[in-house]
Design goal:
With 227 residues, the chain is an alpha+beta fold. It has 2 domains: 16-57 and 150-207; 60-147, no CATH class. The chain has 7 helices and 8 strands; from the N terminus they run αααβββββαβββααα. The strands form 2 sheets. The protein has a 5-stranded mixed β-sheet with strand order 2-3-7-6-5, with no helix packed on it. Strands 1-8-4 form a 3-stranded antiparallel β-sheet, with no helix packed on it. Helix 3 crosses helix 6 (166-180).
């Protein structure tokens, strides 16, 4: 029997699974538990799901960019950053800065010994440390990154993921809820549906990046190649 997901038609609170309040209400219906002690846990199931998705999901909808201010040898990363994709000096793809361990910077670029266009970086806490030091060289730091999925709450009823893929939120939250209820059989059912929906989203992301065509090496067009 197919699983029917009650998808809403707008972003108004309570309209199907495309809103936070609609998701919470639907979870209560599907789990058939009306006791207050349990329903008060439902927001936690959503939060736990989002924590897992932020660790594992990397799709085009999560791609973002930002200009960073460099002070001395470091710059503060965006607070919603989950993973760096590329880092460029002056936004130039020919001036990409590559990641290395912090120990490599400490070994190969002793503090203050080199000033030039940055070539490498390491992440230290919420900052990026660059080497060589930019010194008096003018430039900007552009980071392309995967951002966090905006967390759902009573104050943030919807985001891009629940609006386009409500089944991921529903099946994933049900997985967390059944684990809370120690219902091992139902955990497997919802986990399978959730993982299938996530894999389909990832496959869709690959198609977006590669135009939906087969993945094989081909020449990259160069300026002047077409007369």
């Amino acid at each position: 029997m197919p699983i029917i997901v009650p998808i809403g038609t707008s972003t108004v609170a309570g309209t199907g699974v495309v809103t936070y309040s609609g998701l919470v209400s639907t979870l209560g219906d599907w789990l058939n538990r009306g006791d207050t002690d349990f329903t008060s846990q439902i927001p936690n199931f959503v939060t736990l799901l989002e924590a897992e998705l932020n660790r594992t999901l990397r799709v085009p909808e999560m791609e973002e960019s930002a200009e960073l201010t460099v002070t001395d040898s470091s710059a503060t990363l965006p607070t919603d950053l989950r993973e760096i994709r590329h880092l460029y000096w002056n936004g130039d793809i020919d001036n990409e800065i590559v990641p290395v361990p912090l120990s490599t910077i400490r070994r190969d670029y002793p503090l203050g010994s080199f000033t030039d266009r940055p070539l490498v970086y390491a992440v230290r806490g919420g900052d990026i440390e660059l080497a060589p030091l930019p010194g008096d060289i003018d430039g900007t730091l552009t980071v392309l990154y995967y951002e966090e999925i905006p967390a759902l709450s009573a104050d943030n009823e919807t985001n891009w993921l629940i609006a386009a893929h409500p089944d991921i939120y529903l099946f994933g939250s049900l997985t967390m809820a059944e684990a809370f209820l120690w219902n091992d059989e139902r955990v497997g059912q919802w986990r399978g549906a959730y993982e299938n929906a996530v894999e389909q989203l990832k496959a869709q992301g690959v198609s977006k990046h590669h135009g939906g065509g087969p993945l094989f090496p081909r020449p990259i067009p160069r300026p002047g190649a077409v007369s």
